[in-house]
Structure formats: C-alpha cells, structure tokens
Design brief:
single chain; 253 residues; 7-stranded mixed β-sheet; binds guanosine-5'-triphosphate; binds magnesium ion
C-alpha cells in the first residue's frame, strides 16, 4: 500500500505480459536540483531483520535500496549519510543478507536490502532472500519509493528488468540509480543512461526518475536527498499498524 498517492502519476507498462496493466510511476522530480539539498545530521542503525513483521513500526516514511549483489547499495547509503561504516560493504557479493533499517534525522528510514542475482547461493537460499524481499516490499505501508540500483557499466540485465517490471505490476513506485559512475567518463556515463532510458521506453510509457551516482566521488548525493525530501513531506501516518515489532527491541523508535 502506498500513502503518497498525490505524488503518483499513472503510466502504462507496455510489456506483453502486462498489457493494459496500469502501473504507478512517481513524478519525475529528479531534475529539481534548485532546491537546497536536505542535510543528514544523524543516521543510526536501528535493526536488522529477516521478517518484515519485525521491522520498525511503519510510522515514518521509508526508502529502500535494492539491486543486484555488489552493485553498491550499502556504499550508496554510506555516501548519502556521510558515514564510512554505517552499512557493511564488501568487494565480495552477498554481504547484506537481511533487511537493515537506518533511522535518518530521527524522521525517516533508509533500508538496505540483500542483493539479488548472486550466483553463488544455493537455490533454497536464493528463494529465501527472494521471499524476504518480496514480502517486505509488499507489506510496508510506509514505503514511499524503492531505489533500484544498476551498475552504469552494464547493458540491461534480465533480473533488473524483471524486478522493475514486478514493481510496476504491483504498483510500487521506484527510481533508477546508476552506480559506479566514476568507472566511466562523464560522457560515457551519460550515453549509458540514455541507452538504458531508451530501453525502458520500449516497455514503459514513461521512464522512472534516474540518478547517476558514485559512492567514491560522492556524485548524485544532493539530487537523491532532494528527491527524498520532496517525497516524504507527503507521507501520511497509517491509522492502524499491524506489525509485530516489539518496542523493547528498539527503544530508539
Ligand atoms: N568504484 C566504485 N566502487 C564502488 C562504488 N560503490 C560501491 N563500490 C564497490 O563495490 C563493491 C560492493 O559494494 P557494496 O556497497 O557492498 O555493494 P552491495 O550492493 O551492498 O552488495 P551486497 O550487499 O553484497 O548485495 C565494494 O567493493 C565497493 O567498494 C562506486 O560508486 N564506485
Ligand atoms: Mg550490501
């Protein structure tokens, strides 16, 4: 369920499987860089869970970061929060294996999710990760948007495309974040994003918001934070929460 409906515009996902399916795409506010970027003054780890029911009460707006293993989700969160070790990173894929909540400015959550597409895990563990992520995405009423991270160097990958299609079919807004832009020249990076956008337009009536980032060079920080700021101002607290999170687990929330 999404609570920021006034921010949604509707677009038709044009894929064969989803013909006539109306999907939500959030308004493209990515270019609104004239706003002064939000400052993160406080970021703290709150909880790490495998079950969405044990996540913090959904009383604050929440933004999730997802993508293939090793794409740079945890590094991006650290970069946005100006901290080196808030989220654990590794050069080996499969570092993040649970749903990690970080409370930002005592007001909203960033969520670091396990990656998908990690070849070395067995089938049953892959299915476990898959259900953990699916259930989380489906059941967080305070999830405003999901940032889908894509390595800027690669062509569109089946699992990313499939994941974004699933989000669209479920009516869950998302934005695309191209990572590791420092690995390419500025021109080459822009060409990659343009090509990806073209590719998306084959399936979507309009492209979701896109951000070009580098955790190494701190690229894209102001744009993403400004975008988040523009969205969570519209968050409405759910009347009733059905989560089973025990307040004693987390006195900070
Ligand atoms: N050059 C460069 N390397 C990056 C960037 N972001 C992340 N990395 C590197 O990519 C590797 C993976 O980064 P993580 O942040 O752990 O990736 P992740 O998506 O959280 O990975 P999992 O938790 O395993 O799914 C690390 O070696 C990072 O240093 C970036 O913007 N530029
Ligand atoms: Mg990670």
């Amino acid at each position: 369920m999404l609570l920021c409906s006034e921010l949604q515009t509707f677009a038709i996902l044009k894929t064969k499987a989803a013909q006539k399916t109306i999907c939500c795409i959030i308004l493209n506010l990515a270019s609104q860089t004239s706003f002064e970027a939000m400052k993160i003054t406080q970021a703290k780890h709150i909880t790490s869970q495998t079950d969405w029911r044990k996540c913090p009460p959904p009383e604050r707006p929440e933004y999730a970061f997802i993508g293939r293993s090793n794409v740079g989700k945890s590094s991006l969160i650290n970069m946005l929060c100006n901290q080196r070790h808030l989220a654990s990173t590794s050069s080996m894929p499969g570092k993040t294996r649970v749903i990690n909540h970080f409370l930002i400015n005592d007001a909203w959550f960033m969520v670091d999710l396990p990656g998908y597409g990690w070849a070395r895990v067995g089938k049953s563990q892959r299915q476990e990760f898959q259900s953990m992520i699916d259930d989380y995405l489906q059941n967080r009423p305070n999830l405003i948007t999901t940032f889908v991270l894509i390595d800027i160097r690669h062509e569109p990958q089946d699992n990313d495309v499939h994941f974004m299609t699933e989000l669209g079919l479920r009516g869950l807004p998302f934005a695309m974040v191209f990572t590791k832009a420092d690995k390419l020249s500025k021109t080459a990076a822009q060409l990659k994003v343009d090509a990806y956008t073209q590719f998306m337009m084959g399936a979507w009536a309009e492209c979701p918001p896109c951000f070009i980032t580098s955790a190494e060079k701190m690229t894209g920080k102001d744009e993403i934070l400004t975008y988040i700021d523009s969205l969570h101002a519209h968050f409405k607290k759910p009347h009733h929460s059905t989560h089973s999170f025990q307040k004693s687990h987390n006195k900070n929330v």
